[in-house]
Each structure stands twice: as structure tokens, then as C-alpha cells.
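Re: that chain you flagged

S.,

Sorry for the slow reply, it's been a week of failed gels. I finally had a moment to sit down with the sequence you sent. For the record, here it is as I used it:
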Amino acid sequence: MELSVRDFSFRVFWVGLFVFAASYYLVEHRWMPLEMGLLFALGFLAEWRSVKLPGFGVLNPGEGFYLAASCLYGPLTGAILAFLSGLFWDLKKGKRHEVILFNVGWALMTFSLAGLAFSVGGLLGATLVYRLVSGSLQAHGEKHFSNLALQETVNHQVKETLLVTPAVLLMCYFSMTLLELQAGAVLLLALPVELVYMYVKTRELSAQLRTTLRELESTQAELVATGRKAALGVMAAGIAHEINNPLAAAVTNIHMLKMLVHNSSAKKSMGLLEKSVERCQDIVSRMLKYSRKTESGSGVPCLLPEIVEDAVLFCGRKFGPEGVELKLELQGCPVVSGDPTEVVQIVSNLLANGHDAGGSCVTVGFQAADGVVELIVEDDGEGIPKELQTRIFEPFYTTKAVGSGTGLGLSIAQGLARGMGGDLKLSNSRRGKTVFVLRMTEF
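Prediction finished late last night. Pasting the C-alpha cells below so you have them in one place:
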């Protein structure tokens, strides 16, 4: 039966307390207030300067000082120093009660057993026991507190052992040597603690700076591409306006010619020509319609089937016989309240993303209940990796190549949806099925 987090923490605590108490009767203890105080001060500093190395774990030189106390002055001393110093920082950081309880039990058990091992196997034996006990407890702790597989936490602890053990052994050895020479000399150990801390932090800042520079360069390129697209949009609206009048004149003249010509074959050709020009007029009128921004918050009635058709038009030839299959399941869709210009922008973005997902079909459907209408856009593409799903609505975040995506589409679309009193969410994503839901209110 799987233990709860609370039961697991209590079990570690009580076992640690038992081992701590037993060590009192098994090994002789020495009480050296000055030396112990110096080690405690160094442990306090080390806990403050402990650093996390990505992919490995936490490098805490304080564990070397606690191990030195267990070896020199007995298990009780090392366990008490580790327990008190760790407890202070856990409380200061506001950690969960279960985590604090686990850490107390971990400190009592680990350094009590290490002190006992020193009396039998010397420094190497104490270090080996320290790492085995510490790693085993931490692996099970990660399993319970982070809901990870035990094999994963064990692998992580093996990697952390390679990093931590040499540092702990060196700190412990130097501490014992300096304490045997002169108690005050142990304060020199503050220097390597600071050096390690500054080295790791400098490396982290350097890596962050390089990452930030790469992101800025990418963002700059994306902004240039966005500016070009915006300019093209303004140009397209101007061109549409300019050719609208000639198209109207062309339709009128074709209609007059049809009345003058009596040849049936010629009339048929003119009829086809008239339909083609009217189709061009329809495309131009839609472009003009969506180039005019309606007043924000106007909440006019929007027919989603018509808006989706317009969005498909703006997507060009991405869908149809020459592109990805598009299924529209919008029969009986209620009228929604919103800004048609903004809704078509949202839907166009979702359709374009569905097309670019690498699948063969994009389906657009809906569901309505209690005055809320949800437009559902689903594709059967590659899906969005789990680690990226929380970032796809961030501005300028994109997985596409520079120039292919600005990283603004979903961010803007979500902002527009919320501005209309609705929302845009990623409902589900895995290989073969990605679902976006546009939530709107019924008119």
C-alpha cells in the first residue's frame, strides 16, 4: 500500500529520531563548544550559499562540515548541527510541513549513521554510509513529494552523488585537519565556499545572458517580419479598395453585353465571366470588411459559419484539394456576440496553426450550453510537447523558424477573445489530436 506524503514524512522522522537516540549509547561523544560553534557557523553559511546545478542537484558544502562534526565529536554533534541549520533555512523559505519533517528525519538519520560508521571504517566508511543513506532517502523523498517514478529519482541521485560526494569528502577532510591544527583556522573554509558559489552563479548569469541575447536577436527578426506583414496588410486593403470600383464597372458592362448578345454560346461564356468577376468582388468586399476595425466592445451578432468561411478564404489555398482537408461541422451553431473583425482574426490563426501542425485534417465544430458557445478547432498533427504547452500563449514564443512565425498569433488571439468577454484555451494536445477551444457568449 502506497504511503501518503504525511505518513512517509512521519516515518522518516521517527526512524531518524530512533537512530539519533541509539547513537548516544553506541559511540562516545566529545563536546567542544568552540569548534562546534565554528562548524555551525560554516554550515549556516554553506546552507545560505548552496547552489543548484541544473541536471545534477544541489551542491551544499555544509554537508561536509556536518560530516566532519560527526566524525570528530560523535554522531549526535553532526546530526544536531545539520538538523538546526537545515531547520532554520526550511522555516525561512516557508517549505511545507511534510518537507520540513522529512528533512529533520533525514539529517538525524544520515549524520548519526555516518558518525557510527566512522568509528568502524574511518573517513571513507563514514562518507560511503553518508552518501548511501542520504541518496536513498532523497530518492524516496523526490518520489513522494514530486510524484516521480522511483527509477527516475534513483538515476537523479546517482548523478548527484558524482557531484556532491567529492565536495563533501574534501570539505570534511579539510575541516578535520584544520580543527586538529587550530580551531580558528577552520574559518578559512569560508573562502572555498564563497569561491564555489561565485563561480556557479557567474556561470548561470553568463548562460542567462547568452540566452537573452539569442531571444532578443530572434525577437528583432520576428518584429521585422511582423512589420512587413502589417505593411502588406495595409497595402492589400488599399489595393482592394482601388480595384473594387473597376470590378463593379466590369460587372455592369458584362450584364449589358449579355442583354445585347443573342448567341447562346457567347451568353454562356459571359455568364461564367460574370460569376468570376462577382467572386472577385466578394473576396474584395470581405477584405475591406475586415480591414475596418469596429468599435471595441460593440458586441454585434456574429454568425460563426460565415466567419469561419471568411477565415478559410484568408488562409488561401491551405485547405481543399491542394492542401489539408477541412471539415466544418457548424450546422445549427447559435449566433454569438463579438467583434467580427476580431473573431475572424482568431479563427484564421487557429486554422493556420492547424494546417501547419503537420496533419492531414482540421475539423471545426461547436458545442453550446447555458448561453456559452465554444468553437472547437481540432487537428490530427504532431501535437504540442507537454513542456511547451504552458508557453504557447506567451508573446513572441514560437517553435517555428525565424520568419515563419512571429510568436504573436496565439497571444493576440487569446487577448482578443478575453477582450470580448470570452477566452481561448488549449483543451488537449497529444500526437494525433490537438484541440483549441474559443469560448464566446451567445447573442
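What I noticed first: DSSP finds eleven helices and nine strands in the chain.

Talk soon,
D.
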